[in-house]
C-alpha cells in the first residue's frame, strides 16, 4: 500500500498559514513514508470558486516547497458524483427534504425548549409520493440528506458509534445518533463538499486524511458514507488549529496572515514552513535550510491537544535567523536581482543585521548613499575630529578598530558616546550591521563627506 494523502482547498480565497499547516502536515507525512501528495481543488461551488484563487494556491504551495504528485479539480468530475448520487437515492440512503431554512430553525427551537437535541427529525421520510409532488408543484425544490445508521430502537452500538485511532489525538468516537442526517446536495442540485470528497478519496486511493480538529465530528458522518459506498475507510488525523495572537480563529477573510501576504513581506519560505509545522507541537522552532529538514523527525502524535497561537513576531525572529545564516552561494543570484553586487565581502558585511532578505538592498543604498546625516550639535566638533583622523585607504576589517582607537584616545570618549555619533553620521541610523564591515564598503571619500560635510 502506497501512503496517499491529499490537500483539498476551496479556491474561494487565499490560503492562510493555518491552511498551510494542514498542507505541510500532509506533505511531510507523505514524504516521511515514501508516499504521494495530491492537490485537489474543491471547486464545486461554481459561484464562489475562482481560477485566480486556484492559481494563487498553486503558487503558494510551490513557494512553501510543496510539489504535488497529482492535481485534480472536482468541477471536472461532476458526472462521477451524479452517478453515486443516483445510486444512493435508488438504495434509499439519500432522501429528499423540503423544509425551508426558517422551518428547520423553528424545529430546532422547539426541540431546545423541550430539552431535546436539535437534530433533524426525519419528517421527510414520512412524505408520500403525492406529498412530494404537491410540494414541488408549490415551487419547492428538495435538498438531499444521507440516512445515517444508528438511529432507532433496533440500532446496535456498532452502528451508532464510529470509533477510530486518530493519528494526532489517539482513540476518538462519534455518536451518530447525536447528529442530524447530513445534507449532501443543495436545493439547486450542487454538492456540498462531503460526498465529492469521499468519492474522490475512494477513487484516488487516499489512505490517510490529515486535517484540522474542527473536522472531528464530520469524520463520524464520513466514515458512515465510506461504508455505505463500500469504500476502504482511510486513517484519520486531526491536528490542533492555529489562532491569531488574540486567540481568534483564522479565516480567508483575514488577509494579513495569508501565505501571499507573508510572501509579499519578504519572508523566507523556510521560516513559514518551520513555524507553521512546529508551533503547537513538542518540537523546537529552529531555523531550517529546506523543507526536507522537517520530514525525518515529523510526528503527528507530537501535536498538542490545544489550539496554538500564531504570533508574527515569532515568525519574524525565525526569519531573521534564517536570512543571517544564508551562505553567499545561496544568495548571490538574489543579490543581483535586487541590484546589489554579488560579492562575498558585501554579503558578509550586510547579512548580520538583516530581518528579511530584501533589507540587503536597503543597506546597500546606505553604503552607496546619499544618506540623511544625523548629528547632534554637541557632536559636531567630535565628528570633525573623526574626519581629520580618518586613515587613508586601503581599508580592511581592522581599519575601524584602529581608527576608533585613535579617536577614543584623542577625544576621551568611549562606549556609546564614541560609537553612536559615528554610526548616525555614517549611516543615518541608530542600528545596523557592524561598522567594521561597512566602513570598507563606504570608502574614505564618502565617509569623510558624511562626517564633515562641506
Automatic annotation (TrEMBL):
Motif 'KMSKS' region mapped to chain: 249-253
Binding sites annotated in the UniProt record for ATP: 252
Occurrences of domain Glutamyl/glutaminyl-tRNA synthetase class Ib catalytic (ranges): 3-315
The protein's enzyme class: ligase
Subcellular location, principal: cytoplasm
Record keyword Acetylation present: no
Pfam family, one: Anticodon_2
InterPro entries, per the entry: aa-tRNA-synth_I_cd-bd, aa-tRNA-synth_I_codon-bd_sub2, aa-tRNA-synth_I_CS, aa_tRNA-synth_I_cd-bd_sf, Glu-tRNA-ligase_bac/mito, Glu/Gln-tRNA-synth, Glu/Gln-tRNA-synth_Ib_cat-dom, GluQ/Sye
Subcellular location(s) per record: Cytoplasm
Motif position, 'HIGH' region: 9-19
Gene Ontology biological process terms in this record: glutamyl-tRNA aminoacylation
An example Gene Ontology molecular-function term: ATP binding
Entry GO CC: cytoplasm
Keywords annotated in UniProt: Aminoacyl-tRNA synthetase, ATP-binding, Cytoplasm, Ligase, Nucleotide-binding, Protein biosynthesis
PROSITE patterns hit by this protein: AA_TRNA_LIGASE_I (PS00178)
The enzyme's E.C. designation: 6.1.1.17
Similarity comment: family membership: Belongs to the class-I aminoacyl-tRNA synthetase family. Glutamate--tRNA ligase type 1 subfamily.
Function in brief: Catalyzes the attachment of glutamate to tRNA(Glu) in a two-step reaction: glutamate is first activated by ATP to form Glu-AMP and then transferred to the acceptor end of tRNA(Glu).
NCBIfam families to which the protein is assigned, alphabetical: gltX_bact
Listed name of the protein: Glutamate--tRNA ligase
Source species: Hartmannibacter diazotrophicus
Amino acid at each position: 500500500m502506497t501512503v496517499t494523502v491529499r490537500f483539498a482547498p476551496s479556491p474561494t480565497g487565499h490560503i492562510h498559514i493555518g491552511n498551510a499547516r494542514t498542507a505541510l502536515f500532509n506533505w511531510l507525512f507523505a514524504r516521511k513514508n515514501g508516499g504521494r501528495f495530491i492537490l485537489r481543488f474543491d471547486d464545486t461551488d461554481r459561484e464562489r470558486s475562482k481560477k485566480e484563487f486556484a492559481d494563487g494556491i498553486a503558487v503558494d504551495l510551490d513557494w512553501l516547497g510543496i510539489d504535488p504528485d497529482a492535481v485534480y479539480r472536482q468541477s471536472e468530475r461532476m458526472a462521477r458524483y451524479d452517478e453515486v448520487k443516483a445510486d444512493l437515492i435508488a438504495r434509499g440512503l439519500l432522501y429528499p427534504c423540503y423544509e425551508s431554512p426558517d422551518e428547520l430553525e423553528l424545529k430546532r427551537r422547539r426541540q431546545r425548549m423541550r430539552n431535546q437535541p436539535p437534530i433533524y427529525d426525519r419528517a421527510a421520510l414520512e412524505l408520500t409520493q403525492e406529498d412530494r409532488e404537491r410540494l414541488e408543484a408549490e415551487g419547492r425544490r428538495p435538498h438531499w440528506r444521507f440516512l445515517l445508521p444508528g438511529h432507532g430502537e433496533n440500532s446496535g452500538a456498532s452502528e451508532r458509534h464510529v470509533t477510530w485511532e486518530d493519528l494526532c489525538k489517539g482513540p476518538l468516537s462519534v455518536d451518530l445518533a447525536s447528529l442530524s442526517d447530513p445534507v449532501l446536495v443543495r436545493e439547486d442540485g450542487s454538492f456540498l463538499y462531503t460526498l465529492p470528497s469521499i468519492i474522490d478519496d475512494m477513487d484516488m486511493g487516499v489512505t490517510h486524511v490529515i486535517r484540522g480538529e474542527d473536522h472531528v465530528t464530520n469524520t463520524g458522518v464520513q466514515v458512515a458514507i465510506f461504508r455505505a459506498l463500500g469504500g476502504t475507510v482511510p486513517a484519520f488525523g486531526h491536528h490542533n488549529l492555529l489562532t491569531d495572537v488574540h486567540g481568534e480563529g483564522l479565516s480567508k477573510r483575514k488577509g494579513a496572515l495569508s501565505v501571499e501576504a507573508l510572501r509579499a513581506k519578504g519572508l523566507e519560505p523556510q521560516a513559514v514552513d518551520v513555524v507553521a509545522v512546529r508551533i503547537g507541537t513538542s518540537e523546537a522552532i529552529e531555523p531550517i535550510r529546506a523543507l526536507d529538514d522537517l520530514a525525518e523527525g515529523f510526528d503527528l502524535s507530537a501535536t498538542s491537544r490545544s489550539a496554538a497561537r500564531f504570533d508574527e513576531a515569532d515568525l519574524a525572529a525565525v526569519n531573521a535567523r534564517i536570512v543571517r545564516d544564508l551562505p553567499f552561494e545561496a544568495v548571490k543570484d538574489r543579490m543581483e536581482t535586487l541590484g546589489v553586487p554579488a560579492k562575498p565581502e558585501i554579503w558578509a558585511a550586510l547579512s548580520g543585521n538583516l530581518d528579511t532578505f530584501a533589507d540587503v538592498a536597503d543597506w546597500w543604498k546606505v553604503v552607496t548613499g546619499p544618506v540623511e546625516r544625523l548629528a547632534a550639535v554637541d557632536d559636531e566638533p567630535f565628528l570633525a575630529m573623526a574626519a581629520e583622523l580618518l586613515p587613508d585607504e586601503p581599508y580592511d576589517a581592522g581599519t575601524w578598530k584602529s581608527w576608533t582607537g585613535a579617536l577614543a584616545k584623542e577625544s576621551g570618549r568611549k562606549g556609546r558616546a564614541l560609537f553612536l555619533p559615528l554610526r548616525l553620521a555614517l549611516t543615518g541610523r541608530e542600528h545596523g550591521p557592524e561598522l567594521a564591515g561597512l566602513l570598507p564598503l563606504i570608502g574614505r571619500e564618502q565617509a569623510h563627506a558624511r562626517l564633515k560635510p562641506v
